[in-house]
Amino acid sequence: MSKYVKELMINELRADLDGTRSVLILDFNGLDGVAENALRHDLRKKAIRVRALKNSLARRVFEHMGLGGICQFLEGPSVAVWGGDGVAELAKEISSHVRKLKKPKIKGGAIDGTIIGPQQIEDITKLPSREALIARVVSLSQSPAQRILALANAPASGLLGQLKTLADRPDVGPDEPGAEPAAAPLADAPS
Fold it and tell me: How far apart are CA 77 and CA 25, in angstroms?
């Protein structure tokens, strides 16, 4: 392969991965053409990009991106996978296809610039999605305000409830059964 072609391939891979800090490296070895095509089609629907790599050229690109640690996974046939709605969704989607097809192998990858192995990728699949995490943060940020409002309204609602109970109660005279005894005056305590 000529130097010019290598430079073209490096520039194209850099352009494809531009700004990406989360990449998974897979091994499609043993996957037949029909299954690989179906896998790529399913991933494309979810905005996940798949790219077969020439390891020596990919090492240069990953070193340039500051992801040099990912080069340890570039042995044998390698495929880079990135994109989707977020890191957790990418890992979940790839893991589900790996379980279903049993042929592709997750070698490792980088998540937000941190190099991880196949076991950590499996741990990431157990994380909630980005939207679920945002919803949790929003609900947690709103709960203190809701508590303050509830506490501020509590004395007024309690007083209103007692007044309503007194107003709804039928008039009962002091000598009639069911009447409450009059409160005894407080005596001064001896000094």
Answer: 10
